Amino acid sequence: MRSSTSNSEAGRSNWLKVWLLAVCLVVLVVVAWERVLLQAGFEPAYTDNRALWLSSRHRLSQPDASAIAILGASRVQRAIDVGVLSEQLNRPIVQLAVEGSSGLPVLENLAADPRFNGTVVFSVAPAFSFNRRLRKLDLGLQGHWIRAYMRQSRSRRMEQELRLFALGLFAFRSADASISRIVTEVIDTGEMPGPFYKKTYRNRFVQIDQSKLEGEAKPDGIVEMYRSNSEAYEQKGFSEVLEYFSTLVDILKAKGSRVYVLRLPSGGAVLDYERQEYPPDRFWTLMQRHVDAQYIHFEDYPELDGYLSPDGSHIAAEKAGDFTRQLASVFSARGL
Questions:
Q1: Which of 132, 143, 275, 302 fits a 20 to 30 Å CA distance from 168?
Q2: Closest Cα partner for 129 from 250, 251, 19, 244?
Q3: What is the pTM of this model?
Q4: Handedness of CA 33, 35, 39, 43 (dihedral sign)
Q5: Residues 214, 218, 221, 222: is their CA dihedral positive or negative?
Q6: CATH fold of the domain at 64-151+206-333
């Protein structure tokens, strides 16, 4: 007769085998699913969300006079290939632009941070930087992210970095490869869907695949969006913004930082709209007079021409690397 002890040991052994078998099956399923996704064109991808922005902002938590922080909206996020610019200038580049933003709340955050003494590249897009409607939105999204950065604990940051690390390893972790999306698409169409049109890299460089958009993005659509969501500052309101901007720049310069104000290319109907609604002499020229920074306007540099996407507002994804190299040369000529 077997003892109760031997029965217990046999039971534990059997359960151990069951668990090992279950783990092996899960691993096999995950590996098989990963291969299916890779063959369908999916790859590890990131989402341009708060976690990714916070991770980038933490890169500036230690003093580094060689670091360059890029601020602005989607125009600069799609135009500058962070890896290429870092290689060209031999400096660490941190992309802090936020889609649909003026960038001013982040500039204030850097000015108030005693640890930051690097260079700021502040991208100006008229329908965002000179838009009186955007201030409340800035205080919403950007303000929320900045507050999250200020109070994020070390443990939460470690957890965040581990999740981002996992996102960079497996295609099945990307948002466009979610089971619900794929199953729904297969049921509806009988075909496997492809990756989203928007690809975000770990360094927050964004590429848009125009061929995957439903209907090619047109300048008229961009202009209509601007008309619906923007309103130019009146003289008094813009003077207050310039005073605020100038104060932040002066604080940064007092810490040893340098500030470059960058006007990236736009063209066609988009450029016509920007000139009409945001005349340079009322905005850009006035900013140059009142804010003590270095200014780079694409119209002063012919080498920055010819890289726009069909929407007339953003640099084409396939040309971003070459555009960034040209822009790096302009920065170098201006002492960066």
A1: 143
A2: 244
A3: 0.87
A4: positive
A5: positive
A6: Rossmann fold (3.40.50)
